Amino acid sequence: MDKSWMHSNRRSKAYEFGVEAFLNFAVENLLTTTHIRCPCVKCVNLKLFGVGIIRDHVYFNGIDQSYKNWTFHGEPWEATTNASRNVEEDDGHSRYSFVSEEIDMDDNDFGDFGSDPYEFANVIGDGDQPVYPGCRKYTKLSALVKLYNLKAKHGMSDVCFTELLILQGDLLPEGNTIPTSMYEAKKTLCALGLSYEKMQACPNDCILYRKEYEDSTNCPTCGISRWKEGKDSILKEGVPAKVVWYFSPIPRFKRMFQSHETAKSLTCHAARKSIDGQMSHPADSPSWKLLDDKWPEFGNEPRNLRLALSSDGLNPHSSLSSRYSCWPVILVTYNLPPWLCMKRKFMMLTLLISGPKQPGNDIDVYLEPLIDDLKSLWVGIRGVYDAHNGEYFTFRAALMWTINDFPAYGNLSGCVVKEYKACPICGDDTPSHRLKNGHKICYIGHRKWLPINHPYRRQRAAFHGKPEYGIPPEPLTGEEVLHVVENGDRVCWKKKSIFFDLEYWKYLPVRHALDVMHIEKNVCDSIIGTLLEIPGKNKDGIAARLDLLNMGGQN
Predict the structure, then answer these.
(1) What tens digit of pLDDT does each residue of 379-388 get?
(2) Which H/E stretch holds residue 307?
(3) How far apart are CA 426 and CA 220, in angstroms?
(4) DSSP 271
(5) Which range (118-127, 250-259, 538-547) has the least confidence?
(6) PANTHER family per the record (predicted)?
(7) Nearest alpha-carbon partner for 268 in 342, 163, 339
(8) Residue 93: which region, alpha, beta or left (left: phi > 0; alpha: psi -120 to 50)?
(9) How far apart are CA 103 and CA 344, in angstroms?
(10) What is the pLDDT of residues 151-172, one digit of tens each?
């Protein structure tokens, strides 16, 4: 049957005749007009409707163009080996969209098959097999995914899930393909998951037990054992004291390019141009342009990715424990359009640093495997398949900056963010003042960033009793920062950041960015708390009034 109409304009006669031919074909083969799978791009053969509703869906939503073999509507099943050769023709879409809906995955999440783009059909070949002979509603894979989703949603134990699988197998007709144990189910589903590396760490955040320390039992820095200590003060050999989960981004980047639509979206930035001269996309930023100009071989390939890194502490136990701090490290891909790059499925979790205490300035220890991968991505990963262009290419990526709140900014950059020299721009010349009554340090030189004729510069009583005639200092370049931390006075720096191990990092004009959301929230909480006189949040107390009086009397 001619299926070229599926790619025609939905307002054309060819599309209209094709839809009617498809519906007639389905009714003739299924012998029903009320329970037919809808092949539109939203239903993707998951929902059953009558002919009239399906006709409306196909016109309004469009038909799923990857549904080339109409197996759910009476066309004979193709062999798995033949299906494996149709992957490239499917343009990155598939009949297995039920998997992404059930466990919130994107098309690029199906396994690591970077060396062979046709391996996709072999990995999920069970998706072509009905759950029992004659079943048209569920395949073995779709039924298993739904059952596993119930297990995760309701917290079933492995034993309970195994018994449920056995019961399901007894209830279904003979010849069903439901696995009989949790082990068999995992073997089927593991290909759909993401691999990760479980690393052991020193409880004092000194080292990761990898590379030359892989076989060590004690930390070479502090001497503490890598094993957990029980309540009886006896070491539990084989039970690590601290664990870090590392999810390498390289396999996931490969999968992104093996989805036709995602691979196309990753290069859309090359076609856009800034019309008004304003920065509406990271491609307009100085960091992006510097990478293009300084390394033209990198900038000339639009498929090379530009990344951002973000990390912050969170408490997975909610209010049950206020001391536990777990730190995820997330990568964001800026090549995607703005409406996609912040979607959850494109935000890549790369590290999960367990608590109970935050890593602080030692976070560089945990970032080592990620930095190693970023170095490899800068050199280039050969043999990455691009489904949009149908070719292999050498894939590269660069980290442009980090995004954090101010305390995490200090941990990642190595800059001092407390006490008298806390301004990363002013450095040694930070205008700070310790409040006699509030017992805190305040920073009073912020007016120097106002225009030179701004009236606030001349006001005295509203601030600290003095006018402001200074000019804002120039921030240090990456090369200057590197020189200071390696050779100079480290008054304003705690360490050399691990990001300087990246070849291009010292040349970037912006290496760390502050998360405005945190700053706005904290400032807003203080203002609202003061205006409404909320107990515990009101900043207008006796100590504050006395400190204002003291500063105003310094004239």
Answers:
(1) 999 989 888 8
(2) strand 305-311
(3) 38
(4) T
(5) 118-127
(6) OS08G0208400 PROTEIN, TRANSPOSON, EN_SPM-LIKE, TRANSPOSASE-ASSOCIATED DOMAIN PROTEIN
(7) 339
(8) beta
(9) 13
(10) 888 888 888 988 998 998 889 8
Average pLDDT, the chain: 82
Compute the Cα dihedral for 544, 545, 547, 548 and give only its sign. positive
CA separation, residue 24 to residues 40, 51, 137, 531 (Å): 16, 9, 20, 70
What are the residues whose beta carbons fall under 8 Å from the beta carbon of 212, sequence distance 6 or more?
Answer: none
Ramachandran region, residue 398 (left: φ > 0; alpha: ψ -120 to 50; beta: rest): beta
- Euclidean distance between the first and final Cα of the chain, in Å? 92
| Cα–Cα nearest to 364, from 252, 502, 515 | 502
Backbone angles phi, psi at 89, to 5 degrees: -70, -20
In our burial notation (b when 16+ CB lie closer than 10 A, e otherwise), range 30-66 reads: eeeeeebbbbbbebbbbebbeeebbbebbeebebbeb
Kindly state the DSSP code that residue 477 receives in the 8-state scheme.
Answer: P
Residue 127 pLDDT > 80, yes or no?
A: no
Three-class DSSP category at 552: helix
Contact residues for 293 (Cβ-Cβ < 8 A; gap 6+): 299
Q: Is the per-residue pLDDT at 1 higher than 90?
A: no
Place of tokens 């038909």: 63
3-state SS of 352-375? EECCCCCCHHHHHHHHHHHHHHHH
Q: What is the DSSP letter of 304?
A: S
3-state helix/strand/coil string of 157-188: CHHHHHHHHHHHHHHCCCCCCCCCCHHHHHHH
Sheet of 397-404, strands arranged across: 197-200, 243-246, 348-353, 327-333, 305-311, 397-404, 512-514
39: cis peptide before it, omega within 30°?
no
DSSP-derived secondary structure for 316-330: TTGGG-SS--BEEEE
Q: How far is CA 273 from CA 262, 332, 509, 553, in A?
A: 21, 22, 22, 55
- DSSP SS3 for 393: strand
Number of other residues whose CB lies within 10 A of the CB of residue 202: 24
| CA quadruple 141, 143, 147, 150: dihedral sign | positive
DSSP string, 106-132: -GGGS---TT-TTHHHHHTGGGGSBSS
Q: Nearest 5°: CA angle at 117, between 112 and 118? A: 110
